[in-house]
């Protein structure tokens, strides 16, 4: 098992855990928010100190504290850098629950966030209805009309920005196009299961299609249960552990009905969280074992094709670079695997970009709730992408794809952004 966000279901950690920070400052230079402000309070060390004071009752929750907890990307780069093994991610997630329960932070934003998490993202039916309406909107005259109103300053400019950030809704959703069982197209190698996610289901159905096609073409049988649910990661990262556990329980039940060797995830955030289901049910004997074997079966696509099933992909004659999604590199500790795949494909030119592990600013819903900060972080990523001189950026997380595509449009860069599944599937055509 990797990454230990254990026992901290929205509850501030014990003093012992909070005291693991030895104030060495090794995490400061990798923290995107500290790099923006150079303020101690915007650093992991400063935030841990504040969380500790709140937990000890030495300091009340304040507007500054609430703002710092929301300013943090929860990218977990500080965890990777920390020599003392401090699990910062679970600390900030628990602190956000405290803020949500306090009078601080925008009341409207908090209400809206809770509503979206509980009643839209956690409900496949509601999410599909909203997505279908958004699809009709996106494909009508309305976006241009709204843009005009924004240009005339009748509507706030922010609407255009948010609209450009929002990925296009897929014409057909994965749950209606991916059959429950896909047989391998060549001699069977592995029995796999596939989790198509919530937003991936409605906004990145093409990537999901590429993933199951890729698995099947390389000899895997793919089971994609139609009654699967959102993994619950966005809920947990935003303090709604009750819904996160409910969704996790349903997924354990659903996937538990099928036989498979590995559960393949093509979304860094979902994969990271599903690998932690075990910790959600550590204290529930009837689910503990099922959760452990479920978590152990979860593999990111790059992990699968590197550690478990190295496959000979063909050359595609392109110059590519790779952006490490935070939940792959910092949560799942997956770094060498995608590179091993690229380096095994003769013909492509793989160019490492500077700071490939630096967050792109997408961070779940961060780019929506903290647009300005997110754009400053994206700017740094786009400079590094441009400097790499690659014609294609490959990554493994839907949020990063949407954010970097937005960055390319904003900076007029003629660079394609592709998911690893799409890239590998195309190489087999
Ligand atoms: S999670 Fe990321 S943004 Fe937050 S303190 Fe750690 S490095 Fe900084
Ligand atoms: S690297 Fe770890 S121990 Fe050092 S200041 Fe950061 S969180 Fe604390």
Question: How is the biggest beta sheet arranged?
Answer: 5 strands, mixed
Report the bound ligands by name, code or SMILES: iron/sulfur cluster
Known CATH architecture of the largest domain:
3-Layer(aba) Sandwich
> In angstroms, what is the radius of gyration?
21 Å
Side by side, the strands of the main sheet go 1-3-2-4-5
- The parts where pLDDT drops under 50 for at least 5 residues are 1-8
What number of domains?
A: 4
Described by the principal axes of the CA atoms, the overall outline is globular
N-end to C-end Cα span: 35 Å
Instruction: Name the CATH class of the largest domain.
Output: Alpha Beta
State the helical fraction: 40-55%
Averaged pLDDT, please?
92
Describe the protein:
- Helix 4 (63-71) packs across helix 6 (88-100), helix 13 packs across helix 25 (420-427) and helix 19 packs across helix 21.
- The protein is of the alpha/beta class and 429 residues long.
- A 5-stranded mixed β-sheet has the order 1-3-2-4-5. A 4-stranded parallel β-sheet has the order 7-6-8-9, with helices on both faces.
- The model is unreliable at 1-8 (pLDDT under 50).
- 54% of the residues lie in helices and 7% in strands.
- It has 4 domains: 15-100, Fumarate Reductase Iron-sulfur Protein, Chain B, domain 2 (Orthogonal Bundle); 107-165, no CATH class; 174-305, Rossmann fold; 311-427, Rossmann fold (3-Layer(aba) Sandwich).
- The site of one iron/sulfur cluster has 14 residues, from helix 2, helix 3 and helix 5.
């Amino acid at each position: 098992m990797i990454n230990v966000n254990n026992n901290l279901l929205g509850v501030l950690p014990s003093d012992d855990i909070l005291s693991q920070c030895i104030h060495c400052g090794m995490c400061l230079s990798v923290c995107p928010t500290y790099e923006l402000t150079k303020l101690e309070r915007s650093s992991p060390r400063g935030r841990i100190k504040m969380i500790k004071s709140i937990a000890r009752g030495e300091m009340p929750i304040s507007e500054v504290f609430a703002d710092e907890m929301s300013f943090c990307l929860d990218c977990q780069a500080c965890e990777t850098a920390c020599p003392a093994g401090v699990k910062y991610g679970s600390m900030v997630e628990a602190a956000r629950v405290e803020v949500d329960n306090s009078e601080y932070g925008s009341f409207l934003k908090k209400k809206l966030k809770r509503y979206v998490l509980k009643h839209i993202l956690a409900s496949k039916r509601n999410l599909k209805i909203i997505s279908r309406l958004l699809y009709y909107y996106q494909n009508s005259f309305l976006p241009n009309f709204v843009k005009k109103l924004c240009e005339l300053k009748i509507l706030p400019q922010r609407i255009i920005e948010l609209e450009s950030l929002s990925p296009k809704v897929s014409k057909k959703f994965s749950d209606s196009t991916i059959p429950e069982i896909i047989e391998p197209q060549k001699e069977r190698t592995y029995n796999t299961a596939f989790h198509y996610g919530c937003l991936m289901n409605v906004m990145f159905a093409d990537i999901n299609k590429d993933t199951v096609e890729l698995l099947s073409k390389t000899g895997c049988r793919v089971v994609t249960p139609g009654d699967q649910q959102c993994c619950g990661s966005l809920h947990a990262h935003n303090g709604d552990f009750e819904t996160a556990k409910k969704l996790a329980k349903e997924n354990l039940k659903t996937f538990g009905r099928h036989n498979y060797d590995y559960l393949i995830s093509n979304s860094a955030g979902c994969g990271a969280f599903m690998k932690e289901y075990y910790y959600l049910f550590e204290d529930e004997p009837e689910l503990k074992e099922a959760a452990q074997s479920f978590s152990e079966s979860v593999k990111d696509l790059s992990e699968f094709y590197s550690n478990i099933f190295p496959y000979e992909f063909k050359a595609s004659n392109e110059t590519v670079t790779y952006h490490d999604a935070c939940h792959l590199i910092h949560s799942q500790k997956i770094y060498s695997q995608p590179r091993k795949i690229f380096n095994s494909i003769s013909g492509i030119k793989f160019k490492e970009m500077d700071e490939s592990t630096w967050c792109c600013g997408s961070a779940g819903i961060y780019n929506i709730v903290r647009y300005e900060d997110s754009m400053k972080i994206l700017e740094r990523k786009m400079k590094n992408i441009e400097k790499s001189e690659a014609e294609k950026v490959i990554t493994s997380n839907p949020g990063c794809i949407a954010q970097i595509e937005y960055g390319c449009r904003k900076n007029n860069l003629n660079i394609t952004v592709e998911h690893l599944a799409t890239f590998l599937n195309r190489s087999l055509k």
